[in-house]
Write a structure and sequence with these properties.
With 281 residues, this protein is α/β, with parallel strands linked by helices. It has helices spanning 3-11, 14-44, 76-88, 96-101, 117-130, 140-143, 157-165, 185-203, 222-231, 259-266, and strands at residues 57-61, 92-93, 107-113, 134-138, 168-172, 209-211, 234-236, 251-252. The two termini are 19 Å apart.
Length: 281
């Protein structure tokens, strides 16, 4: 067995997976706090970094109260604090298309990836209370019951229909949540096309938006981008300055994001930052 094969086998061990996730979480915590404190200091000393003309942001959440999802999970109380802080700071909430149409306005759009049940249980009541629209990017194969271990807390089609009835827009997040950076063109096309077709069949209406799983620069290829452009009208990343070409930026929000970090995210402190996680390991 060569070195690469051995490393792959070791990486499949539960202990190795746990160590990797802990390393990701630790590095993410240090980097986000560091960048947030730098942003706070620059703001207080009026040494703010120059910002781009665009002000509006599309925020990328995952679960809201699914603790097993680690840094991707935002506590329900923190989620409500995020909304209230944004309102207090003069932001308004709208849909992603309005943010893109009016980029200079102080507007936020809320999106969720993966289809966690906790979004329906914990986020929707808060969103409805504040009158905030949102979008959920759905993994069609997971809704069919084909999710992997650790993703048991995802909505099936009945749950997604309840989510849609509550006012949440549903869109595609692929058929099986692969790392597109590792797929050839044929596999990428199947993921993109199969997800759209399945969503449209089960939901009964067109689906024209797609969010890249993992969403970082290494999780996409030019070939996937060419195919996606033929299948969907809009493709979203989970990065801002480093996002793949011809994708829409989204600002990743994490479990770590207490008010000082969340405010820094809205101010653009993480626009040049990427999550240290490039797909399944």
């Amino acid at each position: 067995m060569d070195t690469h094969a051995l490393r792959s086998k070791v990486g499949e061990l539960p202990a190795a997976q746990l160590a990797y996730r802990c390393a990701v979480a630790g590095r993410m915590r240090a980097e986000r706090w560091g960048l947030a404190l730098d942003e706070t200091l620059r703001t207080r000393t009026r040494l703010e970094k120059p910002r781009k003309a665009a002000v509006g942001r599309i925020l990328a959440y995952h679960s809201i109260g699914t603790q097993s999802w680690g840094v991707n999970d935002v506590r329900p109380a923190d989620f409500e604090k995020h909304l209230q802080l944004a309102i207090d700071d003069g932001w308004s909430f709208t849909t992603p298309d309005r943010v893109l149409a009016e980029p200079s306005r102080r507007q936020l759009a809320i999106t969720f990836d993966d289809g966690a049940t906790s979004v329906l249980d914990n986020a929707v009541p808060v969103l409805r209370h504040h009158g905030v629209p949102s979008t959920m990017f759905v993994v069609s194969g997971w809704a069919d019951g084909g999710h992997s271990a650790g993703y048991e807390h995802v909505l099936d089609w009945a749950g997604l229909q309840r989510l849609e009835a509550a006012g949440v827009t549903l869109a595609s997040h692929s058929a099986s949540h692969p790392d597109f950076g590792r797929l050839d063109a044929g596999a990428a096309e199947r993921e993109l096309v199969d997800s759209r077709e399945r969503l449209e069949t089960m939901l009964g209406h067109p689906v024209d938006e797609f969010a890249i799983p993992f969403g970082q620069s290494a999780n996409w290829t030019p070939e996937a981008g060419e195919i996606a452009a033929k299948v969907y009208g809009t493709v979203y990343a989970q990065a801002v300055d480093t996002r793949p070409e011809n994708t829409v930026p989204r600002t990743f929000i994490t479990q770590i994001d207490r008010p000082v970090i969340f405010r820094a995210a809205l101010n653009g402190a993480f626009d040049g930052w990427e999550e240290w996680f490039l797909g399944p390991r």
